[in-house]
Amino acid sequence: MKIMKSTQNILAVVAAIFLLAGSVNAQRGNNGGGNKPQGTIEGHVYDAGDDEPLEFANVSLFKSSDSSMVTGAIADKRGHYIIEPVSPGKYYLIANFIGYSKQKIENITLRPPDMKVKLDPVKLKIASQNLEGVNITAERNRVEYKIDRKIINVSKDLNAAGGSAVDVLENTPSVEVDIEGNVSVRGSENFKVYVDGKPTVLDGNDFLQQLPASSIEQIEIITNPSAKYDPDGSGGIINVITKKDHRAGVNGIVNASVSTDESMSGDFLLNYKTGKVKWFVGADYRDRRFGGQGKIDRETYAPDTTFFYSASREREFIRDGYSFKTGFDYEINDRNTLSLSGTAGNYGFGIDMNSKITNYTDPVTLTEYFHSESVMDRNGDYYQGTLNYDLQFNDDGHRLQAMAYYSTRDNESYDNQEDLPADANFEPFEDGVLEGVRSTEEGDEDSYRFKIDYSLPITEDQKFEAGAQTRLSEENNTYDFSFYENYENETGQWVNDPDFYNEYTFDRHISSVYSTYSGTIGILGVQAGFRGEFTDRSISNITGDSFVINRWDWFPSLHTSLDIDDKHKLMASYSKRIRRPRGWFLDPVISYRDRYTLRQGNPALEPEYTDSYDLSLMKRFDKGFATIEAFYRNTTNEITRINQLYDAEENIMLMTFENINKEERMGAELMINADLLKWWSANVSGSYYRFVVEDNLDGRNISRQSNNWTLRLNNDFTLAENSRIQLRGYYRGPSISIQGERGSFFYTSVAVRHDFMQKRLNVTASMRDVFGTMGRESITDQPNYYVKQDFNRDSQIVRLSVSYKINDYKRKRNGRQDGEEPDAEMEGDF
Fold this sequence. Notes:
Immunoglobulin-like, Ferric Hydroxamate Uptake Protein, Chain A, domain 1, 3 domains, 48 strands, 4 helices
């Protein structure tokens, strides 16, 4: 019924879009294009290797008579430039971009009445230079900037070879990764992850941990998405662009890696193109592990007694699984394209932990020692499919796109903790009674998404876009729990505790419409948008309680850019974001995480809202560029995990969720990319922000603040034509939360790569945390309890990665094999 209702809503919105588009198109036809000034020269600048637009390319116009420079322009995100006004005469033009060879276009003539010249596209080739007999080819910068996003070229990061997407993000501006691999964007762990612009079936952090870096071409960091995108995610969007190769015939890449921490992975991708069909197939397998040592000390305060809990821990984190993907594009004709793709796989995450536990009191009335073993395993199967249709009305960008998406996944979670009474040396007693807890959780989730987007160029420099979407999801979960004393030895059966049994269903339906306008006026570029969303959400559990929300939300966005001159560009943006609580954030039934921690949702949770502002300045110089970005995030109703004392005598804590009144982040990011020598390039980036959080927690007015900063340093050395070495370091400073504080950590990594067989085969060796400094500490200090935790990850892990390209054609003359299409060539550096 909900799907039928949503379909009716979508059809009504689509009809409105076409009526509006028809009105705009009629106005466009009436003006006849006569508003353009006389005397213009325009065109586009592309990368000759993959036909991608070269935003910020510099185009200069010179008089043919005396070679004096007349004026110039900067290419926009479409690679488009326009030079105006231009007097009658003969000219030549030079197009240039950092790292590329210049190109000269001659014999440009403006003579009345023909005062509008549209040049053929300019395609710049990556520059090459000779150093003592070694041919060194310039490559794209590791980080590129566009008006609304940062683009990370993954092939530049040798230290990520053989790793996951998280290994790439560890070295990415605006992104922070803690030592356990949890990702945050400008301090927020709430962000959305997309693959090639489509949603992922797994949660953001889980997906990034599963995705092999070898399958990624680029990663886009969009901190202020426009109204065209879903508003979910206070930190913005991470869009992963996977590798593709659309040359004629068969080609592909195979990757494998192994490391000293017993991790291993492998994947392959094959592409085939013939006639109107492009087809791909790929698969990957992963078994990634890392270990470490830690300690937790907890004190809880009763009126006349202090209870102490201390545990030394050895932990191993395991992420494993596999996936298979396939899909095709079919060009029905020059205007219509149909695409279908699908993925099936299995994911797993587990923690194996051995602990030495001491419980005691002050005054001393009790001292206990335990040797504890715990296993947590979470795994499941998933499937997803996407159908796309692309209709191009003409070659000017007038198009209609439609998408249908479906995904499903299940999960099985198992937690088991066994505590054996022991002596002071933590040797278990032979006659000790086993204590512990066991819990299981099972669930499944189905998601549907239907989307339509319409784009209409009004003039060469103006565009109108509109669209509609509906999203539906349903989760079902069951939870069982048992104490070890409920285990029946005679039957070998567990007897679950009915007081902790739970099952809940979480349904959410979101309908949305949006519209955007973008255009340029001289050196000023503007993109403005507005989005409306209606949410119908309900959660019900075993108690029969049901919690329902029906509400409208509005999300404006604004992006502007100013080309000050050919070396300076100023950009500013604003967007409103939302974070909606997940199902288990809302379920009020208490569940066990372990013997000392309970979990309870909060059905009164409201969505959190973030107003996000960015201001950035880019400066280009002869051997590189520098950017500085200022940002401000104001979050209200922030959803925050809160730890409360549940039982002082048993030292049990309760984890729940609250809406914090206010949170602010204000700071800046600086990045400098420079070619210091012909064989040495460096990238330095750092961020600083002031973090302020305010709330009335437990009747206490709380205001906490801290100065947070990170620093990254990358050095790339070209040892020879086929050999490179990369050194990188990362520092993350201390921070605070509403209830405590977190310490800093620092680590360094090194990687070396050598290419064989005319660069078809490459081998990379890397070492992580060379000096063994990767550790962290956190403290929670509250009136009735105190907790201190530390964890040090295993260091000096060595990884060997091998990559082989299949059918990697040799480039000839113009950089391509004869007959090869000018499309994206696969850079299989991993």
